TrEMBL record:
Gene3D superfamilies: Cytidine Deaminase, domain 2. This is Cytidine deaminase. Keywords: Hydrolase, Metal-binding, Zinc. Belongs to the cytidine and deoxycytidylate deaminase family. Its cofactor is Zn(2+). It comes from Aurantiacibacter gilvus. Pfam families: dCMP_cyt_deam_1. The lineage of its organism: Bacteria, Pseudomonadati, Pseudomonadota, Alphaproteobacteria, Sphingomonadales. SUPFAM superfamilies: Cytidine deaminase-like. It is an enzyme of class 3 (hydrolase).
Length: 142
C-alpha cells in the first residue's frame, strides 16, 4: 500500500457523494494539509450548466474552511463514469480552471502541491505536482 492509499480511499468515498445527473461523470477529491488533516469534495452539477463546480474546487473550498489553503500539501482526485464497474479506467486530471485554483493554494503556502490523479478504482494513477501541470501559472503578481 502506498502512502497515498488512505487518501485515495477518502477521495473514492467523496466521489460517491457527487451530484452529476447531467454528465454522469463522478469525481471525488481529497485535499491533505501539512499536518495530515483531510478535506473532501465532489463535483456538483446544476441545470444551469455553467454553475457546476468541479470536485477539486469543492474540496479546496472545504479545505479553506477546515485548515486554510496555505496549508494544502497534497490533492488526490479520482473519477470516472457513474456506471463504471470494477474494471480500471483512465486517471482523471484536474481541468485548467482547477489547476489555477490549486496554484492559488501553492502560491499562498510557498510550496509545490503533489497531485495524485486516479481512475474511479484508484488502481490507475499518475503522481505529479501543480508546477508540472501548470508551469506558467497566472499569479497575484500578474
Ligand atoms: Zn476542474
Amino acid at each position: 500500500m502506498n502512502k497515498a492509499a488512505p487518501l485515495i480511499e477518502a477521495a473514492k468515498a467523496a466521489r460517491k457523494r457527487a451530484y452529476a445527473p447531467y454528465s454522469q461523470f463522478h469525481v471525488g477529491c481529497a485535499v491533505e494539509s501539512a499536518d495530515g488533516t483531510v478535506a473532501l469534495g465532489a463535483n456538483m452539477e446544476n441545470a444551469c450548466y455553467r454553475l457546476g463546480v468541479c470536485a477539486e474546487q469543492s474540496a479546496l473550498a472545504a479545505a479553506q474552511q477546515a485548515f486554510g489553503l496555505e496549508k494544502v500539501r497534497r490533492l488526490i482526485v479520482v473519477g470516472g463514469p457513474a456506471d463504471s464497474g470494477e474494471e480500471a479506467g483512465a486517471p482523471v486530471t484536474p481541468c485548467g480552471g482547477c489547476r489555477q485554483a490549486i496554484q492559488e493554494a501553492a502560491a499562498l503556502s510557498g510550496h509545490d502541491i503533489e497531485i495524485v490523479c486516479c481512475d474511479h478504482t484508484g488502481e490507475q494513477s499518475i503522481t505529479t505536482t501543480i508546477r508540472e501541470l501548470l508551469p506558467a501559472a497566472f499569479s497575484l503578481g500578474d
